[in-house]
């Protein structure tokens, strides 16, 4: 979707209280070129001006979606499409791309591992990318991009020789790295499946595995959604963007999706094997109990008959009745064992 209309924005039309100090504490603006680097944060952020000079790149990063008035002011001061206001302050987007007249808007989910709940959670990420700037908003305060800040500041690699498209590509690459970290955390939780002899398929264990599978499937859905968004980005025409960066991002996402598929298939296969082994063990136990039952049930039957308290039982008066009964019991046992061997129940 591409919007060309633009009208003047009142940066202070939002009636909610505007805490400028909170906004400054959660924001930073980096401008750089081949020869220069400048960082504004905290009290230095009195005015946020995004450069239009093609030789200078601006990177504005904000934590949180609660700074609605500040967002309005940034959009108004830099003469951006006012439709961005509704897009940027909403933190409940699905992964999507919207093309505007001189930039594009991208929103996606970035994973992070919560040690408190031992789960992978997702935060909303928003990017507004123009020819000379990248504006990123992170829902959760934390830093996935510190290594990029250091590369820009210390002029490491080629980042300061490239444009906003290369910066956006590196930011996307960092998010994909987060997916790999979350994926590795989930696969680590399945290490117990490597030793099936020591793993017991308890209900708690099965619930844990199903929870990990659910999170892996969630990561897979998110990666597919990002790949669809990148496919949309390939068709934008608001400014020149090197297509090779899109291709590289899609390849990385494709590799991750393939790894997740392989892990899920292997997990299902291992679980099926584990429960098959467990069922085999149970069958062996049941077979042993059945063999003992075949031998001892007839003996119990005989003992039960001659344990009855009837007066008219002639065998009880026989001098050698006791020994005869024991002999019958031994004979029955021998016959039962021969029968079981011929049926190969012992094997």
From TrEMBL:
<feature type="transmembrane region" description="Helical">
    <location>
        <begin position="320"/>
        <end position="340"/>
    </location>
</feature>
<keyword id="KW-0460">Magnesium</keyword>
<keyword id="KW-0406">Ion transport</keyword>
<dbReference type="GO" id="GO:0005886">
    <property type="term" value="C:plasma membrane"/>
</dbReference>
<keyword id="KW-1133">Transmembrane helix</keyword>
<dbReference type="InterPro" id="IPR002523">
    <property type="entry name" value="MgTranspt_CorA/ZnTranspt_ZntB"/>
</dbReference>
<dbReference type="InterPro" id="IPR045861">
    <property type="entry name" value="CorA_cytoplasmic_dom"/>
</dbReference>
<dbReference type="GO" id="GO:0015095">
    <property type="term" value="F:magnesium ion transmembrane transporter activity"/>
</dbReference>
<keyword id="KW-1003">Cell membrane</keyword>
<dbReference type="GO" id="GO:0015087">
    <property type="term" value="F:cobalt ion transmembrane transporter activity"/>
</dbReference>
<dbReference type="Pfam" id="PF01544">
    <property type="entry name" value="CorA"/>
</dbReference>
<keyword id="KW-0813">Transport</keyword>
<keyword id="KW-0812">Transmembrane</keyword>
<keyword id="KW-0472">Membrane</keyword>
<dbReference type="GO" id="GO:0050897">
    <property type="term" value="F:cobalt ion binding"/>
</dbReference>
<comment type="similarity">
    <text>Belongs to the CorA metal ion transporter (MIT) (TC 1.A.35) family.</text>
</comment>
<dbReference type="GO" id="GO:0000287">
    <property type="term" value="F:magnesium ion binding"/>
</dbReference>
<protein>
    <submittedName>
        <fullName>Mg2 transporter protein CorA family protein</fullName>
    </submittedName>
</protein>
<comment type="function">
    <text>Mediates influx of magnesium ions. Alternates between open and closed states. Activated by low cytoplasmic Mg(2+) levels. Inactive when cytoplasmic Mg(2+) levels are high.</text>
</comment>
<dbReference type="InterPro" id="IPR045863">
    <property type="entry name" value="CorA_TM1_TM2"/>
</dbReference>
<feature type="transmembrane region" description="Helical">
    <location>
        <begin position="289"/>
        <end position="308"/>
    </location>
</feature>
């Amino acid at each position: 979707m591409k919007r060309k209309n633009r009208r003047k924005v009142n940066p202070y039309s939002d009636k909610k209280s505007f805490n400028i100090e909170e906004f400054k504490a959660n924001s930073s603006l980096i401008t750089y070129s081949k020869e220069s680097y400048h960082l504004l944060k905290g009290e230095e952020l009195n005015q946020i001006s995004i450069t239009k000079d093609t030789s200078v790149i601006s990177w504005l990063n904000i934590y949180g979606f609660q700074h609605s008035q500040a967002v309005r002011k940034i959009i108004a001061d830099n003469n951006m499409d006012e439709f961005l206001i509704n897009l940027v302050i909403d933190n409940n987007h699905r992964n999507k791309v919207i093309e505007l007249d001189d930039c594009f808007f991208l929103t996606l989910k970035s994973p992070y591992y919560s040690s408190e709940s031992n789960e992978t959670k997702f935060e909303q990420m928003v990017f507004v990318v123009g020819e000379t700037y990248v504006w990123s908003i992170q829902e959760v305060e934390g830093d996935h991009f510190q290594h990029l800040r250091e590369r820009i500041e210390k002029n490491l690699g080629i980042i300061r020789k490239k444009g906003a498209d290369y910066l956006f590509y590196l930011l996307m690459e960092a998010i994909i790295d987060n997916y790999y970290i979350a994926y590795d955390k989930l696969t680590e939780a399945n290490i117990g499946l490597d030793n099936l002899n020591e793993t017991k398929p308890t209900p708690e264990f099965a619930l844990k595995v199903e929870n990990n599978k659910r999170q892996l499937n969630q990561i897979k859905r998110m990666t597919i959604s990002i790949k669809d968004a990148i496919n949309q980005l390939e068709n934008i025409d608001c400014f020149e963007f090197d297509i090779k960066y899109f291709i590289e991002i899609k390849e990385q996402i494709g590799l991750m999706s393939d790894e997740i598929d392989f892990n899920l298939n292997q997990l299902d296969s291992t679980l099926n094997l584990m429960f098959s082994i467990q069922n085999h063990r149970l069958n062996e136990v049941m077979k042993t109990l059945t063999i003992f039952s075949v031998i001892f049930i007839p003996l119990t039957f005989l003992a039960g008959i001659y344990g009855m308290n009837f007066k008219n039982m002639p065998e009880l008066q026989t001098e050698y009745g006791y020994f005869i009964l024991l002999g019958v019991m031994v004979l029955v046992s021998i016959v039962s064992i021969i029968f079981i061997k011929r049926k190969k129940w012992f094997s």
